Amino acid sequence: MMDDLFMLAALGVLLSVAGALIRAWRGPSRADRMMSAQLIGSGGVGMAVLIAAARSEPAMLDVALVLALLSAFAALAFVKTVTPAGAGDPEADEADAP
Amino acid sequence: MSHAFDLALCALILGAAVLAVTGRNVFGAIVFYVVYGVLLALAWLILGAVDVALAEAAIGAGVTGVLLIGAWQGLADAGGLEDEAPRPVFLRLAAVAGAGALGGLIALAVISLPGGDGLTLAVVDNQDRLELGNPVNAVLLGFRAYDTLLETLVLTAALAAVWSLTRTRVWGGVPGPGHVTRPDGVMASFGRLLPPAGLLVAVYLVWVGADAPGGAFQAGTVLAAVWILIVLSGLQDEPRLNSLPLRLMIIAGPAVFLGAGLAGAAAGAVMGYPDGHAKSVILVIEYALTLSIAATLALLIAGPARRAP
Amino acid sequence: MSVMETIIAALLALGVFFYFAGTIGLLRFPDTHSRLHALTKADNLGLGFIVIAAALHWGDGWIAAKLALVWVLALFAAGMAAQLVARAALKAEGRE
What range defines the domain where residue C75 resides? Predict the structure, then answer.
């Protein structure tokens, strides 16, 4: 009963992830595509938690932990691509950029 | 309900894979590939293969994204993204044929697997002799240790191949573009905040690896990600590639592993562990491998040296 | 269905609702910055409710702590990413 409930919720999150893929396809800007990757990453964390709960296997939570820890890495690399040679910080003003 | 989720996940994995291959927009293809990694990790989780799911989550969803975006940056800097001329038809057909043949061979191999539980029972019966609670690591570092040894050597060889692309002028120098960020900015703060949590998770993963899903590869990948994060956020530059401690770190894992294997050979069985001390030897190998895998993966992503030492 | 099960079901429904809100915002909002706004708020709340539901399901302190760590890490990541992606989108617009 409870495991079905958790899997139903996981299916719901999966469907919302499928919707986010449409934005990754359409863009138009690279930031839009990156955002949909972020949403899908956070959906992945949620689904991992739900699957672990449905199976009542705490070891599966480690997958959610690793996904959550690394979910921002691609975003960090992405935001650097708007700066020269991908080496800067989009927050730094042009004046004090090297 | 569980079947509905499985089917939807399969459909989405296939969809993400097709979009990653056929997409006209290179950056979009990278996003789909990262998404594909996240979904694949969930598929392994559904199959109950938590060790593989952990590795896929760390590699597919974390490190690969940074690597591919770095490649995109390189393409953009070299003007490769403006090249809109479609590839010749025969080249694309050849790629399709090659991928199809590889996929077919893998399908054939999967179909020809013996049914039933395969070697599961044999592993479960014998894993007590290694005193390891995690059957996956009993296979990786015990029963099929030579496979794992060769895999770690492949990683080292890949790093040597990347380094061989270095220009002579900067040999042994520093890789990467030299990241500079605003000192009190969000990026630098994030670079300070996340590494302690990352270190904790990595130590935890290698620690539980003996008895539960986890282990050297997963922990090494998380450590590599922490390394990359510190570099990207401009807190610390990449090390010089001719630094002796760095090179020792890269070969520590394979060297300890090989040493244990040769010591076993001297005692009678290549890659055999002494009775009663198997677990201690395996743990030492795992810890050394964790460091080496971390350094190797991080330096693979950093690429060849770009600045003189 | 016990009281606890009803509570967990309600939390899961809320969580899924916020994930959908995030997706609908990502698809329907008119420009990059408003889409970012929809995304960061919605998916953090969605994950938050799911994490609370899972913690109640196990009813174990250590597991709840691990789940809390998962959520806090996701919050940090989302906050950082939102700030920087917004800046990056501004820079990219200025250049084009």
Answer: 3-95
Q: On the CB side of C84, how many CA atoms lie within 13 Å of its CA?
A: 34
The C-alpha of B1 sits at a distance from chain A's nearest C-alpha, in angstroms, of 6
Distances (CA, A) of B107 to B43, B100, B101, B102, B193: 18, 10, 10, 9, 44
Looking at the structure of chain C, the number of domains it has is: 1
B269-273 LR contacts (CB < 8 Å, sep 24+): B270/B146, B271/B145, B271/B146, B271/B149, B273/B130, B273/B142
Mean pLDDT by 10 residues, chain C (96 residues): 86 91 86 80 85 90 90 87 82 59
Alpha-carbon Rg for chain B in angstroms: 22
B189 phi and psi angles, rounded to 5 deg: -65, -40
Instruction: Tell me, rounded to whole angstroms, the distance of Cα B203 from its chain centroid.
Output: 17
Question: Chain A contacts of B35, Cβ < 8 Å?
Answer: 21, 24, 37, 40
The beta-carbon neighbor of B186 closest among C69, C73, C80 is C80
- Which among B6, B38, B237 is the top mutation candidate for probing chain A, defined by the most A β-carbons within 10 Å of its own β-carbon? B38
Give the model confidence (pLDDT) of C52-66 as tens digits: 999 998 888 889 999
Q: Give the gyration radius of chain C's Cα atoms.
A: 16
| Nearest CB neighbour to B193, from listed C69, C76, C83 | C76
Contacts of A20 (CB under 8 A, 6+ apart): A36, A39, A40, A43, C22, C23, C26, C27
Nearest CA in chain A to B198: A69
CB A75 within 8 Å of CB A41 = no
Identify from A34, A49, A71, A78 which residue to disrupt to test chain C contact, counting C C-beta atoms within 10 A and taking the largest count.
Answer: A49
C95–chain B nearest CA distance, Å: 15
pLDDT digits (tens, 9 = 90+) for A62-93: 999 999 988 888 888 888 877 777 777 777 76
**Cα C17 to Cα B309: distance, rounded to the nearest angstrom:** 54
Please give the ipTM for the structure prediction: 0.90
- Peptide bond between residue A28 and the one before it cis (omega within 30 degrees of 0): yes
B78 DSSP assignment: T
Mean pLDDT of chain B: 85
